[in-house]
Amino acid sequence: MSRVKGREQHIPSHFSQGERFAMKEALKGAIQIPTVSFSPDDINTTAQAEFGEFIRTVFPTIFKTRFIQHEVIGEYSHLFTVQGSDPSLQPYMLMAHSDVVPAPDEGWEVPPFSGLEHDGFIHGRGTLDNKNSLMAILQALELLLIRNYIPRRSFFIALGHDEEVSGQNGAQKISALLQARGVKLAFIVDEGNFILDGFIPYLKKPFAMIAVSEKGAIDLKLQVNMTPGHSSAPPKETSIGILAAAISRLEQTPLPNMFGSGPLKTTLQELANEFPFPANIVLRNLWLFGPLVSRLMERNYITNALVRTTMALTMFNAGVKMNVIPPMAQAIINLRIHPAQTVQEVLELVKNIVADDRVQFHVLTAFDPLPVSPSDHQALGYQLLRQTIQSIFPEVNTVAPGICIGNTDSRHYTNLTTSIYRFNPVYLHPQDFRSIHGINEKISVQAYETQMKFIFEFIQNADTYQEPIPHLHEL
Ligand SMILES: CC/C=C\C/C=C\C/C=C\C/C=C\C/C=C\C/C=C\CCC(=O)N[C@@H](Cc1ccccc1)C(=O)O
Ligand SMILES: [Zn+2]
Ligand SMILES: [Zn+2]
Question: Ligand 1 pocket: which of 133, 164, 424 to mutate (most atoms <8 Å of CB)?
Fold first, then answer.
C-alpha cells in the first residue's frame, strides 16, 4: 500500500512527561478494579459499574466531544461511535474487553488487583488480557482529541464486558445493534496474536503475527451412568472407571495433524527468510520438508496447537461419599478446532476414539473455525496494521498472517465484515504467554506506552483515501 496521500496534518506521537505519567497511572487504576467474569451468570457487576465511571473520569474529552456518541450496551459494555468528516470512507472498528479471568492471590509476586509498578512493569490481572488494549485505545483517542484531531474515516470502539465468558451480553448485542443500523465495516482489529519473540528455536528475531482466523471450539460434556451401590462389593466397572478410561483414550490419541491446510503454511513461508541456513531452505520447500516441519511443530505445546485440534480436559466430577459407588461421572472437554476442520468432523473423530456406547456426549457450546480474512496487498485493515507495525517497530522484519489459538469477541462480528484481524501491538515471550490466564501477568511501562503510540498512529493512518495498491511490496 502506498503511503497516506493528502493527509493535511499528521500529529506526531510525542507525549509530555505529564501525559506519560497520567497514562500509566490510568492503566494502574483500571487494573485495580476487579472486573472478574466467572460465568455468564456470575460477573462482577459492581466492578463493571465502577469501571464505567472510571473511564468517564479518566477520558473526559472523549465523553464531551460532539462527534463522538457513547452508548452503554448490555448494561456494562461500551460502544463509541466516532463520526468522521468524510462519509464516503467506510468505517472500521477497534475492540477490547474490560473483563478479566479470576486471579486467586496464590503464586503472584504482587496481589493481582494491586496494579503495582515494580522494576518498570505494571503488574496485575488484565495487563496483557486485555485492559492494556482497552486503555490504550481510549488513551490514544483522548490524546488525539486534545490535539484537536478530527478523523476523516468514522470508526467504532466496542468494549465488551463479558468476553471471558462468551460475549453474549456484550459483543453479541453490539453486533446486533450495528447490524440493525445497517453498518458494514471495512475491517475490525481485536486482541489475539502479538509480536512473538523466543517462541521458535533458531529464530532470533521477533516477528509480528496478525491472526486472520481463529480456531473453532467445542465444550463437550461426557457422562457415564451406572448402577450405584455399596463400595464393599463393587462391580467390575464403575461410572468413574469407564469415564476415566474414555478420557485417557482421548488424551493418548491426538486428533490428526492438519499441517498444510489453513493459513499456517503462508506464515511459515513468510518467515523463511528470518531463519538461518538450513532452516530457511527447509521452510522455503515445504512441498518436500512439510512432514519434517509438521513433526517438529507437534513437539512443542504451543506450536502443536497451531497444527491440530486440541483437547483439554478441564472438569471432572463424580462421587459424594467415600463408601458409595456413584451413579454418575461427568467430565468437560474443551476442544479448539483447527481451521481445516468442522464441529461435526471433530465430534465424529472424538466418538470414534471413545468407542464406548456407555459414554454419552452432550455438546454444551460449539462453533466452527472463523473464516480466513484477507491478507493480500488490497486488504486495507491488514495493510494498515502492517504499515503501522513497520513504523512503530522498525526492528520487526516480518509481518505474517496466522491463526489465533484462543477465541475473541470479534467472532461475533462476522455479520458486519469479512476482514477481522486479531493483533496486539505488544511483544510476547513464552513466559508472558503463560501469564495470560495464569500468574504474574504484567506489562512494561514502555510496552504500554508503545501500544498507545501504535494506536495513536493507526487511527491517523486509517484516514487514508487510498485503497491499497496491488503487488507493491514496499509501503
Ligand atoms: C509458525 C508460527 C510459529 C510459532 C508461533 C508461535 C506461537 C504462537 C503462540 C501464541 C500465540 C500468541 C498469543 C495467543 C495468546 C492468547 C490467545 C489470544 C486470545 C485469547 C483470549 C481469550 O482468552 N479468550 C477466551 C474466550 C472464551 C471464553 C469462553 C468461551 C469461549 C472463549 C478463550 O479463548 O478461552
Ligand atoms: Zn482477552
Ligand atoms: Zn482471556
Answer: 164
- Find the 333 Cα to ligand 1 centroid distance in Å: 17
Determine if the peptide bond prior to 278 is cis (ω within 30°): yes
Question: Which CATH class name applies to 17-212+373-461?
Answer: alpha beta
Residues 58-72 as b/e (b if ≥16 CB within 10 A, e otherwise) read bbeebeebeebeeee
Ranges of residues in the chain whose predicted pLDDT is under 50: 1-6, 471-475
Tens-place pLDDT, residues 102-118: 999 999 999 999 999 99
Q: How far is the CA of 264 from the centre of ligand 3 (A)?
A: 23
List the domain boundaries for the chain: 17-212+373-461, 213-367
Q: Report residue 12: phi and psi, to 5°.
A: -65, 150
Q: Which residues contact 308 (CB under 8 A, 6 or more apart)?
A: 254, 255, 256, 257, 258, 298, 338
pLDDT tens digits, residue range 199-232? 988 888 999 999 999 999 999 999 999 999 999 9
Whether 163 is catalytic: yes
Apex CA 401: angle with CA 395 and CA 406, to 5°? 105
**Could you report the per-residue pLDDT of 255-294, keeping only the tens digit for each?**
999 998 888 999 999 999 999 999 999 999 999 999 999 9
Residue with cell 532470533: 204
Among the four given CATH numbers 3.30.70.360, 3.30.70.1230, 3.30.750.24, 1.10.260.40, the one describing domain 213-367? 3.30.70.360
